[in-house]
Every structure is written in C-alpha cells, then in structure tokens.
C-alpha cells in the first residue's frame, strides 16, 4: 500500500513511480486529463476534483500565507484498465503556502502506491519527499498526519489498482 520500507526500497519507488505514471498517462484507454486550478490561501478548506470514467481524484486542503498559486491535477487510466493514477502538483516546484491540512482521495480504486513531496522537481531541482511520519496512506486516501506534518506540500502522486473481474 505505501512505499517500500527502507531507504533503498524508497529510492527504487521514487525512481520507478514517475516513469510508471508517465507510461500510464501515455497509454491511457481514455484520454488522460490535466487541469489547472488555483490553490488559495486564507485558511478555508477547498477541494478540487477530476473524474475519468469510473474513477475520481479529489484534492482537499487548507492553506495560509501568500497569494493564489497555480497547481495542476493529472489523472489517467492504464490501457488495460488495471491502474488509475492521480498527480497533484505545483509545476513551478516549491509552494510558498503554509498548508494546515491536505488530503487526496481516490474513488473507484484502491491505492497501491502514494508519495507526498515538500518540493516538486523544477529548474534542475529534484523532488523532495516528505518524511514518512508526516503523512498517512489508507486504501483510498493520502493525508497529512496531525502534529507531524511540517506544513510544506508541493506534490502528491497516487497509483491505485482498479477492481477487475478474473476470468
């Protein structure tokens, strides 16, 4: 459900998942969907949601400081309909907002892998993952961990397994 335990396992997942997500999007049965949205500060809870076929990804957050930031959500379904992917990120890399909470939820599939980052790759910089204790992963959500999350978020990645019938 979560990234492999141990540093080498985490590094392996960190290297493989972005490539897998790109493959999922490139080989999607339905056209992958990318949508821009504003992450707005002010302390209110906001949500942004996208659906593709039977699958939905919803990003819910509350943030403080600064001004609106443009973010993107990308969703896709693999050609064989076995995986649904959802990525939420700030294309410019680092967010300057202070996130008080976040949650990404998938409907129609169960999370196989998820990762959250304090900084997204941009301008020659690499993704900087959150510490494992800062967020939690369930079958359908990735969310901040109360009291452990350090208020920095720039990217979320989810790969979820879709239900399918065995022959």
Automatic annotation (TrEMBL):
- Top-level lineage group: Eukaryota
User: Mind telling me which GO cellular component terms the entry cites?
Assistant: extracellular space
Q: Which InterPro entries does the entry link to?
A: MYDGF (IPR018887)
The answer to whether keyword Signal applies is yes
List UniProt keywords, sorted A-Z: Signal
Signal sequence interval, chain numbering: 1-28
Which PANTHER family does its entry note? MYELOID-DERIVED GROWTH FACTOR, MYELOID-DERIVED GROWTH FACTOR MYDGF
What's the encoding gene here? Answer: MYDGF
Signal as a keyword of this entry, yes or no, is: yes
Q: Which GO terms describe its biological process?
A: positive regulation of angiogenesis; positive regulation of endothelial cell proliferation
The protein, known as: Myeloid-derived growth factor
Q: Where are the transmembrane segments?
A: none
């Amino acid at each position: 459900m979560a990234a492999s335990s141990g540093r080498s396992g985490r590094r392996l997942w960190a290297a493989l998942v972005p490539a897998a997500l790109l493959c999922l999007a490139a080989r999607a049965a339905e056209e992958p969907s990318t949508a821009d949205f504003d992450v707005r500060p002010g302390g209110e809870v906001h949500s942004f949601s996208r659906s593709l076929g039977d699958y939905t990804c919803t990003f819910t957050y509350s943030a403080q400081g600064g001004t609106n930031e443009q973010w993107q959500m990308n969703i896709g379904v693999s050609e064989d309909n076995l995986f649904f992917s959802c990525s939420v990120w700030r294309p410019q890399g680092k967010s300057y907002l202070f996130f008080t909470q976040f949650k990404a939820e998938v409907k129609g599939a169960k999370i196989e892998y998820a990762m959250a980052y304090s900084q997204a790759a941009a301008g020659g910089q690499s993704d900087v993952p959150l510490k494992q204790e800062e967020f939690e992963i369930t079958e359908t959500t990735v969310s901040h961990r109360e009291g452990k999350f350090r208020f920095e978020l720039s990217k979320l990645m989810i790969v979820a397994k879709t239900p399918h019938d065995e022959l």
